[in-house]
Amino acid sequence: MLLRFVPRSSKAKRITNKDRKEKKMDMLAELRAIVGENNVLTEDADTAGYLVDWSNRFFGKTLAVVRPGNTEEVAQVLAWANRTGTPVVPQSGNTSLVGGGTPSPKGDAILLSLSRMNKIEEIDAVNDTMTVQAGVVLEKAQQAAQEAGRLFPLSFAAEGTACLGGCIATNAGGTAVLRYGNTRDLVLGLEVVLADGRVVNMMRGLRKDNTGYDLKQLFISSEGTLGVITRAVVKLFNLPQTTCTALVGVEDPHKACELLASVKTAAGPALTGFELMQAKCIERVGEQIESVTLPGDVSSAPWWCLVELSYARDPGCNPLESILEKQFEKGNVVDAFLSNSVKDSRAFWAIRESIPSADAHVGGNLHNDVSIEISDIAAFVDEALAALNARFDWIDPSVFGHLGDGNLHFNIGSIPPNLAFENEEGIRETVYEVVSRHNGSISAEHGIGQLKRAHFLKLKDPLELELMGAIKRAFDPKGILNPGKVLAD
């Protein structure tokens, strides 16, 4: 016998804009009950600064900027988001260059700002550890460590704004990776809130812990797609008593790599930083950044290396003098400026750290952040520049980066400035093809975010992507954590 379905009401339910507005008001009321009235921001004037990434490339919208003050509030917000199916975009210092902390223009997500969680909870000078909340600004952590007679070595140009939660979520690199490693190498313990609001407490300041899988490593570099980092235990080191710094001119990246190998052999673990810069990068800083003074004419060499040694005790002389003297004799060095004071050393580093700002002043620059085995760096630079110049005769590459750990940045400019952005995909494909031939990485320290996602999904090994997807589904089955970043939605 056939059964006929008879609806209870002949009137179809109609959802109006009023219904949607009331639902949104109810949702916001729940969030305000968790974090407080003043910590749920909805007005355009209050949210604008959170909705654009540092490079002004990505703009988003949000239901609200939610600012929890502690881990328990983060947990309650995520439990609410999991229950309601609301996407969550974590953000701390908002210094991403790849749109990693920017919500989509759909406006269906909340932006979870960790900026209020900015306490340094403990410094243990015996265990050489510091316990911090995710919203602690990197520069504040450095200063706190220094006041305790210790060094927190993570350092890069945005350290006055970037927060440790974001540094950990992106595995930030910087200028001292050669000696101290990436952020991953500096993290001993983590506290993470999962997508459903549960809190994983891995806050152990242990250097040895062989009890199964090292779960914290999954969250480092995950860009907020597996959980929200709320607290961390990080390593500290002895504070250097003496640093020796030099700007060294070389003919090409091949000579720079030879110089790096020689300094490594001569200085050993004292080698802290080794940067590579085109001379035109330095000249542009001198032209565009008034607060930075060049040590002299850098036109004597087309490429320059910034070399720094650091010592726990005063070596009694400047070891770089004898090292460079031998390199002059070998023909690896064309010119050099040696620092005579801490002021000189800071001035040298100010040049290196001001290159992105100087390029931005000129305008129209694309950012590339690639990693190549150090022994292949020189060949990669030759090939990449030749490929770019052959395809785009108007292109103006600005090449610099952390030669000591194999990480180079290509800021691609043009005249007129709009040409670089109009040809962005072609430029990236050209660079990434050379990266692939050298078995390198298209993201060394900036992350994937939105900017590199399509290229990442295309170039990454399919099995690696499959395993990453399985991990993502296990930790975030509803896909609410930072959607549209790294992996496919």
Task: Describe the overall structure.
The chain is α+β, with helices and mostly antiparallel strands. It is built from 18 helices and 18 strands. The chain has helices spanning 17-35, 44-47, 71-84, 138-147, 164-170, 177-180, 183-186, 216-219, 253-267, 279-288, 319-330, 342-353, 355-362, 377-391, 418-422, 424-437, 453-459, 462-475, and strands at 40-41, 64-66, 88-91, 110-113, 120-124, 129-133, 150-151, 187-193, 199-202, 228-235, 237-238, 242-250, 271-278, 303-311, 335-338, 366-371, 395-402, 407-414. The strands form four sheets. It has a seven-stranded antiparallel beta sheet, with helices on both faces. A five-stranded antiparallel beta sheet has the order 5-6-10-8-9. The longest helix is centred in the N-terminal third of the chain and has 19 residues, at 17-35. It is globular and about 75 Å long.
List the defining traits of the structure above.
single chain; 489 residues; alpha+beta; seven-stranded antiparallel β-sheet; five-stranded antiparallel β-sheet; 18 helices; 20% strand; disordered N terminus
